[in-house]
């Protein structure tokens, strides 16, 4: 049985969207830490530089940048010499959150945020895609098509008022599909199962098992047994599919859920550690800091709901 390229594109479904309008003033700069979700930046007005650990990208009005793997990066105004402001996108209301960074005159307006995709779709594309995917805006005699698809004036109008966050999330998903379609092999027709990767049904089983029992003592052998595979074959196929080892995936799922519990503020750190499968607060705190570059207590006070 085979899945068409359209089937695989449609498997990239948004399950969580945290979106903001980012107003960058003179000498403004923002820094974003590594995330389990995908980052995006859509430049509505002005120009900015996207800086990753490996390269810099100049983004003009209408350009769209996607970081499907959630890589750490910065967005800066030309000539910014101050330490970047560290930001994190929280939940979106009916209208996108407003973030303003820098001082002086306005330099750029961006629609930015993080999107959580169903893991099956992300596994098929995200770990194989380049660190940064770019969709250039179309600029012609003052007219701008953002992401090469939608008139900028229409986007500006739709980013305020009731339902603006839903519009923003739908627009970004549309541009993501365009990017994946343009970037990945057009004649994909990947098999649903194969020698080198897990099939979508097997991915779904693993994701549901782990997310449903984060406190379980998961091992590679136990996960492999759940889908009827040998430990070695499962480990190889899982890594080929997700771009990370099975236990790295388990750890990321545990810590992502822990971060959500910390933001709620209703649980002690040791209680959260136990809920996500850690036997001690020390081990949990060490893993959390390694993942998010911040201690659990500091995270809870810095990024409350």
What's the short story on this structure?
The protein has 305 residues and is an alpha+beta fold.
Key terms:
14 strands, 305 residues, 11 helices, 2 domains, Arc Repressor Mutant, subunit A, alpha+beta, Jelly Rolls, five-stranded mixed beta sheet, six-stranded mixed beta sheet, globular
The largest sheet, given as strand count, sense and whether it forms a barrel, is: 6 strands, mixed
N-end to C-end Cα span = 44 Å
Domains, number? 2
Mean pLDDT figure: 81
Oligomer: single chain
Order of helices and strands: HEEEEEEEEEEHEEEEHHHHHHHHH
β-strand amount: 15-25%
| Radius of gyration over C-alpha positions, nearest whole angstrom | 20 Å
Low confidence ranges: 185-195
Tell me the number of strands: 14
In DSSP terms (H or I, runs of 4 or more residues), the helix count works out at: 11
Question: Which structural class should the secondary elements be placed in?
Answer: alpha+beta
* CATH superfamily membership of the largest domain: Jelly Rolls
Shape: globular
CATH topology of the largest domain, anyone? Jelly Rolls
CATH class of the largest domain: Mainly Beta
* Order of strands across the main sheet: 9-1-10-3-6-11
In CATH, the architecture of the largest domain is: Sandwich
Provide the helix percentage: 25-40%
């Amino acid at each position: 049985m085979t899945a068409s390229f359209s089937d695989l594109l449609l498997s990239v479904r948004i399950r969580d969207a945290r979106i903001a309008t980012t107003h960058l003033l003179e000498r403004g700069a923002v820094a974003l830490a590594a995330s389990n979700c995908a980052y995006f930046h859509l430049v509505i007005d002005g120009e900015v530089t996207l800086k990753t650990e490996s390269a810099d990208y100049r983004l003009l009005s209408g350009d769209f940048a996607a970081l499907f793997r959630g890589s750490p990066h910065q967005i800066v105004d030309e000539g910014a010499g101050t330490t970047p402001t560290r930001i994190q996108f929280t939940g979106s209301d009916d209208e996108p959150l407003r973030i303003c960074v820098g001082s002086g005159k306005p330099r750029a307006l961006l629609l930015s945020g993080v999107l959580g995709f169903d893991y099956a779709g992300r596994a098929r594309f995200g770990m194989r895609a380049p660190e940064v995917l770019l969709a250039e805006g179309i600029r012609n005699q003052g007219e701008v098509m953002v992401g090469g698809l939608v008139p900028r004036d229409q986007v500006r109008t739709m980013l305020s008022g009731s339902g603006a966050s839903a519009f923003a999330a739908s627009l970004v998903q549309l541009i993501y599909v365009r990017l994946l379609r343009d970037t990945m092999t057009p004649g994909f027709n990947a098999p649903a199962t194969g020698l080198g990767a897990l099939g979508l049904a097997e991915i779904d089983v693993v994701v549901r098992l782990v997310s449903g029992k984060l406190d379980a003592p998961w091992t590679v052998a136990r996960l492999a047994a759940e889908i009827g595979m040998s430990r070695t074959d499962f480990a190889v196929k899982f890594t080929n599919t997700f771009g990370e080892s099975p236990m790295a995936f388990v750890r990321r799922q545990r810590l992502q859920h822990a971060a959500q519990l910390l933001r709620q503020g209703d649980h002690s750190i040791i209680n959260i550690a136990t809920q996500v499968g850690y036997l001690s607060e020390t081990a949990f705190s060490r893993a959390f800091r390694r993942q998010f570059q911040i201690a659990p207590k500091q995270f809870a006070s810095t990024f409350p709901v």
